[in-house]
Amino acid sequence: MKKWVPAASGLLAGFLAATVFFADLSPAQRSEASNDTNKSNAEKVYVPFGEKDEYYLFASGGHSGQMFIYGVPSMRHIRTVPVFSKDSATGYGWDTHSKEMLGDYTWGDLHHPAFSEKDGDYDGKYMFATDVGNSRAALMNLETFTVKDIINVPNTSGPHCAAFVTSNTEYMFLPTRFAVPIGREYASLDEYSEKYRGVMSAVTFDDKKEKLNIAYQVALPPWSYDLSDAGKKVSADWAVMTTYNTEEATTNLEINASQADRDYIVLFNWKELEKMIKDGQYDEVTGQKMIFPEKHKGGIYLVPVAKSPHGVDVTPDGKRFIASGKLAPAMTVFSFEKAFEAIKKEDFAGERNGIPVLKYESVMEKEVNPENALGPLHTQFDEKGMAYTTMFISSEIVKWDPNTGETLDRVPVQYSPGHSVAAEGDTVDPDGKYLIALNKIAKDSYLSVGPSHPESMQLIDLSGKKMEVIQSSPVNPEPHYAQMIKADKIKTISVYPKDENNPDAVYSQDQTKIVRKGNEVHVYGIAMRSKFIFDAKVERPDQIEVNEGDKVVIHLTNIDFDQDITHGFAINGYDLNIEVQPGQTNTIEFTADKAGTFPIYCTNFCSALHQEMTGYFLVKPKK
Amino acid sequence: MKKWVPAASGLLAGFLAATVFFADLSPAQRSEASNDTNKSNAEKVYVPFGEKDEYYLFASGGHSGQMFIYGVPSMRHIRTVPVFSKDSATGYGWDTHSKEMLGDYTWGDLHHPAFSEKDGDYDGKYMFATDVGNSRAALMNLETFTVKDIINVPNTSGPHCAAFVTSNTEYMFLPTRFAVPIGREYASLDEYSEKYRGVMSAVTFDDKKEKLNIAYQVALPPWSYDLSDAGKKVSADWAVMTTYNTEEATTNLEINASQADRDYIVLFNWKELEKMIKDGQYDEVTGQKMIFPEKHKGGIYLVPVAKSPHGVDVTPDGKRFIASGKLAPAMTVFSFEKAFEAIKKEDFAGERNGIPVLKYESVMEKEVNPENALGPLHTQFDEKGMAYTTMFISSEIVKWDPNTGETLDRVPVQYSPGHSVAAEGDTVDPDGKYLIALNKIAKDSYLSVGPSHPESMQLIDLSGKKMEVIQSSPVNPEPHYAQMIKADKIKTISVYPKDENNPDAVYSQDQTKIVRKGNEVHVYGIAMRSKFIFDAKVERPDQIEVNEGDKVVIHLTNIDFDQDITHGFAINGYDLNIEVQPGQTNTIEFTADKAGTFPIYCTNFCSALHQEMTGYFLVKPKK
């Protein structure tokens, strides 16, 4: 086997050297290096008022817990949509529905977003996302850009990345980044190999109910599972996932998880796993249907790969998958056809933890080694099937041909790109045109905001002969992955339709009421330009009076059926805020635990008399 | 008195008509109207990699609770700095210091940001901000872009806007937006005029300790106090604030607070108030030194103004202040000199709530009435002292000359501008060049993100003969005000210096330790590329093991003294995340209330081996 992976210590020195090298360039030199036709670049990214961006970019917000929505090519940040963390701007985490979805958790670490697909193409209907911080998955509706469901993923610790979705959104596969004992029980790290497992979850989606569901789980070996991708076309029944720490080290992974020359790609056939579940080939563990590969045989294989890989990416034609050791100078092209052939022939190099291991040479098609390129992390594709790989250590994007292995172009980015995203890049039919490098380090690219800098996204024009960085955009921490979709695929609604069957909704002043039930006060109110009406029949319709200790439930309907007229509802000093979008009914529940006088006001500027859109919440003290 | 204020009902109809008018224009028409030289506009706003923006824009984040930092002219969003709401991306609200600062509150409504000043000019050292949601004030240090202090403002309900700061940052004045009973006790709205008050707080700032302090309060009448400004130069000892609801209505303010033709501007001499406090001319109420104007006479005056004014703005030369009824078609220019003269002569039109009322005619210099302009909210100034007023209802910026009253130029903005901000616009020495309209309504300006749209900021080039909108930028909810400062005035640090006197900090591996004290576990650890070391002396230095129920205190120091190398620290499943910026020591405290196995990981991508920067938090179950 060719020993092309240098020792980790040498690579770290190389990484540091590369960082210093770029840091030493003057701004002018870097500008010249990356961008010598400012004039045309300015035109390329400018979207004048009255025109719209061509693509939406959905970028994971990392430990912000949220999703960032951008327009491309302008790279303007249009909206942050709250997903796993509370967001006071939208009342997310305060209103009853979102509070229930978030449960006991106050934050998340949103890693990998994936659009729903039909026939391997983004259909623009839903977005899925995972939470590494508190092990959850979420579903976002793209008519409203709001989260509809969040599930906890048991036995899993950091579902780092879905296998994106399969070609018709049959499944989203959630591998675990960290191995933990099944049931998450306490177990000493001395018992790591025996008691810890790397559980992967197969999640399905009911689009009628807008609910996620765990169909089954697979108890893989106690390794770290990193990135993954679903097969396409000929490989549509399959998926691939990278692993690291197959050494099963329990401390100082920086050194100890880089000992073996090879880690593995997990290659599995989800149709076969589905059949195993149907046939009862699983154990019931912690309430989940769990496949133990050493016992329930079939459907799962290991492919050796250069150590510590990050991304694994299936080509648009579904024929190949590309992976790389992240400390390596090379990309490896694997062939699904060769893998299928080897599996058919049972051409295995033994087993690991009860899973058959395919021979590297039997599946590998070619190794691609651009000169001095270092740290390949992730690959995207254009309309011709050409590959674009981010090089974290040498800070560049390398364009190459997966058919020939030829390096076609290289462009420096600033600095240390983790992932990149191409227009419709994860579909069977990418658009080319644009690639965005998601850079981890900005250094002095932008005005300084203190010791912690923003991350940086750079927009690369793919339409010319040479790749060209045409815009650099700072971004809040921290995009780990993104998808870019044609703007016209997303069909939003502009107001919520009336729902006469909703018992909480009131659509006219005379329906408003405040109802007391024992120690509970239920308010059925409306928000409209420019007043609140909680009970139209009383002297002060914009006042709510309760007793200290009462449970208060406020249902509020925005009866301005008019695009962009959102109202907020806050009670000063009571630490709560919710929003009602046009036509929407929203609910907030809380206990009136502080006696006194608390003004109510609209938090979302709505009209010339917005400042007057107020009322009072009065809490009579206990005697 | 000239009756130039039409009835509110007519104005509302006008507002609606104006909205419909703009909504009916096609995108192309609007584009042509506002922007006929796209090519040059693209160039004007494009900042190529290697160059930097010319100005920082600090925009209030409204009910997001945070501050948004932008670069101008690129209008790129560089960073969201958390202030009044938790922010998981930076661990703000989880680490001990920020958690203590936020106290019991989980969100805020950040309205008005103000830079510290020296001689009436921004000095680039600090930023102040107020919270309308939970009545607080905050101090941000601009070396690090982090909040250093937050205070609760008692007796006040929604300190809507500081009087910005006085010319040498002697005071920030916080008027209340909503009147409440002093001490916030329960009182029926039937007793509004007797028991409710509109308390203003005078806040001082200790730059050595980086602490805010309430020097004294003033119990003004139970009105709503809206915007304010400090005097400059000749008026440097004075400040002005707008009021509305001087009708003292207690319900349906949309109608009832627009009954009287006039509300007031409160004009006060803070040097005189300071002297009154020194002389003991106050009552001690709820632990505060409180001036009751009806009893402690002097220093405060009322100036009649067109009803329901929003902004009041002092000209750069300090000679005039400009205010407008927000439902009116006119701006009124008032003269400080005339006001001083009238005060000297005691030329009053009686008193209101014990405060002398100046005669409108004695203080007013001129009324300026641009044809068909409606809804003047706020005025900024350029280097020649020319005024730029936002017209909420007619959706435009009007440029005019405060000396002559002449209208110089008008430009439509999309849509409904609340405030605007000019480069160094609140100083004695504005720059001109750029004005940014903070528009409340975006409608279809950007790719749709559902029924609730972003707000919109538009950059206006002031350098040509005509004002020109050169960029439109979506923004998260919701900028209410902003200040724009020359980039070179802000001097950030790039790493935190070593602090050998900090008992929580450790700077080398051999200093790391885990110390048990009864039921408390204290960890003194380090974060470095690419590992955590909590106790270097044990077998697994990146493991923390505790017993269920233990109190855990983790001090973590980032020993990568290298620009932009921030580490995160999260425990999967334990719902916590903090960050340590380069050189920084940070602390998190929590109770280990769940037994089991919980991976620790770095949340902020820091190196090629970031994925390996992990450990385990093991919690032994109670027997």
From TrEMBL, chains A, B:
Subcellular location(s) per record: Periplasm
Domain Cytochrome oxidase subunit II copper A binding: 518-623
Top-level taxonomic group: Bacteria
UniProtKB keywords: Copper, Metal-binding, Periplasm, Signal
PROSITE patterns to which the protein is assigned, alphabetical: COX2_CUA
Signal sequence, renumbered to the chain: 1-23
Entry-linked Gene3D superfamilies: Cupredoxins - blue copper proteins, YVTN repeat-like/Quinoprotein amine dehydrogenase
Classification via SUPFAM superfamilies: Cupredoxins (SSF49503), Nitrous oxide reductase, N-terminal domain (SSF50974)
GO cellular component, one term: membrane
Protease is among the record's keywords: no
One MF term in the entry's GO annotations: cytochrome-c oxidase activity
NCBIfam families in the cross-refs: nitrous_NosZ_Gp
Official protein name in the record: Nitrous oxide reductase apoprotein
